[in-house]
Amino acid sequence: MNTRSQYEFQHVCPRNCFSNCMMISRVENDQIMTLSGKRTHPYSQGKLCAKGYSYIERNDHQDRLKYPYYQEVKGSGRFKQITWKKAFELIECEILNIQKKHGHLLPLALYKGSGNVGIHHYVTDHFFTSLGGTTRIFGSSTATTGFEAIEYDMGTVKMSNPSMIKDSTLIILWGANPAATNIHLIPYIIEAKAKGGKVVVIDPVYTQTAELADLYIQLRPSTDGALATLLVKELLKADCYDKEFLEQHSYGYEDYLEAIGKNSKDNLIRKCGVVEDAITLLAKWVKAAEAISHVIGTGLLKHSNGGQNVREIEALAAIHGDIGKKGGGIFFRRKDSRLFQNQLEVVSKDTRVIHLNRPENRIPPSRFSPPIEMLWVSGANPLVQEAEPQFLAEFFAEIPFVVTVDLFMTPTAKMSNLILPTTSHFEEMDIVTSYWHKEISLNEKAVSPYYESLSEWRIMTELAPRLREIGCSFPIHASEEEYLNAQFTEAVENRYFIKNVSELKNKQFTASSDRIVWERRKFATATKQFHFFSTEAEAKGLQALPLFVDGPSPTEELPFWLITPHHPYTFNSQFHFLKLSDSEEAIVEIHPKAAEKLSIDDGEVVKISNQQGSIGIKVAYSHRVPTDILVIHQGWYPDSDVNINKLTPPLPTDMGNKGTAFYDTFVRIEKL
Ligand SMILES: Nc1nc2c(c(=O)[nH]1)N[C@H]1C(S)=C(S)[C@@H](COP(=O)(O)OP(=O)(O)OC[C@H]3O[C@@H](n4cnc5c(=O)[nH]c(N)nc54)[C@H](O)[C@@H]3O)O[C@H]1N2
Ligand SMILES: Nc1nc2c(c(=O)[nH]1)N[C@H]1C(S)=C(S)[C@@H](COP(=O)(O)OP(=O)(O)OC[C@H]3O[C@@H](n4cnc5c(=O)[nH]c(N)nc54)[C@H](O)[C@@H]3O)O[C@H]1N2
Ligand code: SF4
Ligand SMILES: [Mo]
Q1: Does residue 285 contact residue 170 with C-beta atoms inside 8 Å?
Q2: Beta bridge partners of 86
Q3: pLDDT exceeding 70 applies to what percent of the chain?
């Protein structure tokens, strides 16, 4: 009776998280009784985060969507429960009408977010491309900024296995807070420390990760490049740099060295605002280290000069000789983890792509040519997570028909006409690859779908036959497993040594061995060298060299930076129901000195505002933030009116056409 196949199932957490942990559920009578981490998982090693351990609570949460709902007027809240049959009829009718009216489907748009990164969930992209020309609306994606920066220098984005950080003698974390956002990295960092390695955290905010550091450096936001350049100057002065790398494996270093020679030390120190003693100590450690592991977080990227700052850190890594060495290198993300067929079909040659955070696209849906008449939202909560949700609410309101597929009634779902309930990862089959570690894992279906939820594969499979007459080529498979099997490619086989789901069932983990990337120091650029000078960057109107570029700063009128980082106990706008935080409501952290100047008390409700909007929020005194920075964690605060992105302007980052400079937000704070 109690054989494994009957009641124990294997899962992968499909959040847009570094870890993609594996977990084991034990099921009785179609109910998940217990959930634990899978100990043999090479990266996460059986431990889950607080959110992972709360999945049973999430799965049966009373707020989960049970049925399809329809509302005639978006935002009216007058939802009618409808049948799936009726829902499919409504969708079919809208799509056929668009085709009839326009002769094509470009007015039909898909907005997909990062709510679930499993291969299964690319079924929506796949379905849209199978319709021929449709529209893809992209919101922000921070990673693209870092990818573009790394591509200018090295040609492509690769990363050594992050567990190799345990062999580092010096780890520098630039704008990353893994103690909150990448907890499985911490044991590897601690192992390095135990072996005598040093850890440096560079962050304007004294974070949970900073508490673990041997040296914490508080710098002005968006000035990491200035600090990296200061370190390069120190290395040159001490004649302590990798001459072989520069001469044999790099391109344009002479120009770079000449250019930074013109930027004085005093000027760079003024820019980054770091105390000189800290720079001196860090420079001493950098000089002594054989190789440095640079962990680049996304906090650093959410600035209008974020990409350029990454290039300056890479320049430091190149000059110091960290790239291609054991215990060294750049740890950002892998770009090459999307190898399945449906991941390669996110857009087709007929797709119209609209980057909604670009100024020219901040226009009503009817002003696009052709207009946007139907929007499908999947795994996204842009009315909370994107900059300027005020614009998005209007944008949604003006689209004649909006469909949202989710597990919860989010603010985005509330601004939709049709809300479709979908399955959790315990209720569907999936495969998840990681953009951080090297594992691939199978997620098994363990329990029946919650009430009437349907998996996204099932939704598309039901819809496709209804749209055959207008050329929908989405293939019908008999099961999720068959659909997933059809997505395997040669590249998947080459990387993970598996051809289908059954092989993945038997093979627990990837056989590929740990490899130090760029070990031969042959890069993927045109010259095969590391590019200090990038003609590609220059052609795009960016700096050819990795020189510091100023970003915006607070002004007299808006004297505070507003930094809105990720919270340890929520996941973007998910897990909002977990009441694990110190405070149950949204809080703004302010330094007591700054607060006292404005006669603001601890616990007082204040107004925070700027040119774009205002919010009312409770104050918490904190010594973790400098006197000119306010911190509010990003996410969905369903019990309050706080939506921090009301204050965030849709300012693009310098690189990666989807990046938003979330942390270049400036505000004032006042008593109510
Ligand atoms: N618990 C949890 N884990 C998560 C997520 C979550 O929401 N919750 N989200 C996941 C996702 S989608 C992502 S992208 C990652 C994000 O996780 P991280 O990469 O850690 O990014 P952030 O939380 O945005 O910012 C990290 C730090 O950067 C600092 N920072 C801001 N500006 C600068 C700067 O200019 N320079 C430097 N040096 N530091 C700066 C912030 O103060 C913050 O402490 O986490 C993933 N993991
Ligand atoms: N101010 C500020 N804003 C930020 C950030 C910041 O640091 N500061 N960070 C940005 C970053 S890095 C990111 S990645 C984005 C993240 O923002 P989003 O991409 O919107 O991600 P989530 O909020 O994690 O999830 C979106 C929705 O997906 C739903 N979902 C979960 N699983 C599934 C599923 O299987 N199917 C479907 N259809 N839906 C599902 C969730 O319930 C949720 O409502 O936010 C960005 N916004
Ligand atoms: S959110 Fe991240 S750390 Fe937590 S269980 Fe999921 S993959 Fe693991
Ligand atoms: Mo993200």
Answers
A1: yes
A2: none
A3: 98
CA–CA distance, 319 with 260 (Å, rounded to integer): 13
Q: What is the full DSSP assignment across 314-330?
A: HHHHHHHT-TTSTT-EE
- Whether 181 lines ligand 1, by a CB cut-off of 6 Å, is yes
Number of H helices, E strands in the chain: 24, 26
Q: Nearest residue CA, atom 3 of ligand 3?
A: 49
Which of 360, 357, 304, 355 is CA-nearest to residue 666?
304
Taking residues 115-133, report their average pLDDT.
98
C-alpha 637 to ligand 2 mean position (Å)? 13
Pairing relation of β-strands 560-563 and 401-406?
unpaired
Residue 480 — left, alpha, or beta (φ > 0 → left; ψ -120 to 50 → alpha)?
A: alpha
CB atoms within 10 A of CB 57: 12
The CA distance from 241 to 637, in Å, is: 49
The two tokens of residue 311 are: 């290039």
Structure tokens at 169: 């003698």
Q: How far does the centroid of ligand 2 lie from the alpha carbon of residue 572, in Å? A: 5
Model confidence at 507, in pLDDT bands (50, 70, 90)? confident
pLDDT in tens, 521-568: 999 999 999 999 999 999 999 999 999 999 999 999 999 999 999 999
115 lines ligand 2 (CB under 6 A): yes
Q: Backbone phi, then psi, for 137, in 5-degree steps?
A: -100, 125
The per-residue pLDDT for range 203-242, each reduced to its tens digit, is 999 999 999 999 999 999 999 999 999 999 999 999 999 9
Strand partners for 295? 173, 331
Q: Which residues contact 307 (CB under 8 A, 6 or more apart)?
A: 145, 146, 148, 149, 301, 542, 653, 654, 655, 656, 659
Ligand 1 neighbour 566 (Cβ under 6 A): yes
CA of 434 to the centre of ligand 1 (A): 18
Q: Is residue 498 helix, strand or coil?
A: coil
pLDDT of residue 401 exceeding 80: yes
Number of Cβ within a 10 Å radius of residue 431 = 22
pLDDT of residue 611: 98
The 10 Å CB-count burial string (b at 16+, else e) for 250-270 is bbbbeebbebbeebeeeebbe
Give the model's pLDDT for residue 1: 41
| Contact of 424 with 406, CB cutoff 8 Å | no
Helix segments in 515-606, DSSP class H: 535-539, 592-597
Q: How far is CA 176 from CA 168, 183, 332, in A?
A: 17, 11, 10
Token pair for 568: 């340890």
Q: What does pTM read for this prediction? A: 0.97
Residues with CB under 6 A from ligand 3: 13, 15, 17, 19-21, 44, 48-49, 51-52, 183, 571
Q: Is the minimum distance from the CB of 652 to ligand 1 under 6 angstroms?
A: no
- In a mutational test of the pocket of ligand 2, which residue from 61, 145, 381 has the highest number of ligand atoms less than 8 Å from its CB? 381
- Ligand 3 centroid vs 46 CA: distance in angstroms? 11
CA–CA gap between residue 343 and residue 658 (Å, rounded): 18
